């Protein structure tokens, strides 16, 4: 009998919560999917959605409070103060500070070089020394830029065959209506091919980009 290989999509959803988060949660429930939300502090009115996502079985991770590149990458101290800020927001919602984090721009970002030379090289070690683990991605839906829902489905699925474990980058910030439109089709594409959608936990495969600053 042929061995059945169970492939996993770790859907990661950044920059929320926002008015789009409820729709994303309902889609995930409809398809029986778990995901990971790397949250920011832009929309206090929607902070209760962090608890809602957690209660529905998703993983909560920290993105940053401000997502302000000029501030967070101005110094290690600024980065960690900002991380502590979003940690406090999440603790107010779910009772503890998660160890899962995602750097704005990913660990490979070079925009940080505009503010502090070498800061990513320092931070990737320092966050782990402080007990966090950072997650980059190996597939991007492209929804960080302006694209149609059709484009997002294409970007999110075109490289599927290259990976057994996919960490897929999407966003649920306020302007990302096209992400909500594309999400059911992205899920259907993978589920039809036998993938399951799981939330990140401490046993999960951890993709790290190469550091460029
Ligand atoms: Zn982001």
Question: Secondary-structure map with pairings?
Answer:
Elements: E1 8-14, H1 21-30, E2 35-40, H2 48-55, E3 59-64, H3 69-72, H4 76-94, E4 100-101, H5 119-129, E5 133-134, E6 139-140, H6 149-157, E7 165-171, H7 177-192, E8 196-197
Parallel strand pairs: 1-2, 1-7, 1-8, 2-3, 4-5, 6-7
Helix pairs in contact: 6-7
Bound molecules: zinc ion.
CATH-assigned homologous superfamily? Glycoside hydrolase/deacetylase
Overall average residue pLDDT:
95
The helical percent reads 25-40%
Mass-distribution shape: globular
Instruction: Kindly report the CATH topology.
Output: TIM Barrel
β content, as a range? 15-25%
Supply the number of helical segments: 7
Explain what the structure shows:
With 213 residues, this protein is of the alpha/beta class. It has a single domain, classed as Glycoside hydrolase/deacetylase (TIM Barrel, Alpha-Beta Barrel), CATH 3.20.20.370. The protein has seven helices and eight strands. The strands form two sheets. Strands 1, 2, 3, 6, 7 and 8 form a six-stranded parallel beta sheet that branches. A two-stranded parallel ribbon has the order 4-5. Strand 1, helix 1 and strand 2 form a beta-alpha-beta unit. Helix 6 packs parallel to helix 7. The N and C termini lie far apart (49 Å). The mean pLDDT is 95. Zinc ion binds next to loops.
């Amino acid at each position: 009998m042929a061995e059945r290989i169970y492939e996993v999509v770790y859907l990661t959803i950044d920059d929320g919560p926002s008015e789009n988060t409820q729709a994303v949660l309902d889609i995930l429930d409809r398809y029986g999917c778990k995901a990971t939300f790397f949250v920011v502090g832009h929309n206090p009115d929607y902070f209760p959605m962090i608890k809602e996502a957690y209660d529905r079985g998703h993983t909560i991770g920290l993105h940053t409070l401000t997502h302000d590149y000029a501030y967070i990458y101005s110094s290690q101290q600024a980065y960690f103060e900002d991380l502590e800020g979003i940690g406090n927001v999440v603790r107010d919602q779910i009772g503890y500070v998660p160890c899962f984090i995602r750097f704005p721009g990913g660990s490979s970002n070079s925009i940080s070089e505009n503010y502090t030379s070498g800061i990513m090289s320092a931070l990737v070690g320092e966050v782990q020394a402080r007990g966090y683990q950072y997650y980059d991605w190996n597939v991007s839906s492209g929804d960080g830029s302006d694209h149609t829902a059709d484009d997002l489905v294409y970007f999110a699925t075109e490289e599927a065959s290259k990976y057994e474990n996919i960490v897929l980058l999407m966003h649920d910030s306020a302007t990302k209506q096209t992400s909500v439109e594309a999400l059911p089709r992205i899920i259907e594409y993978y589920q039809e091919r036998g993938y399951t959608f799981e939330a990140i936990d401490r046993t999960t495969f951890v993709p790290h980009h190469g550091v460029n600053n």
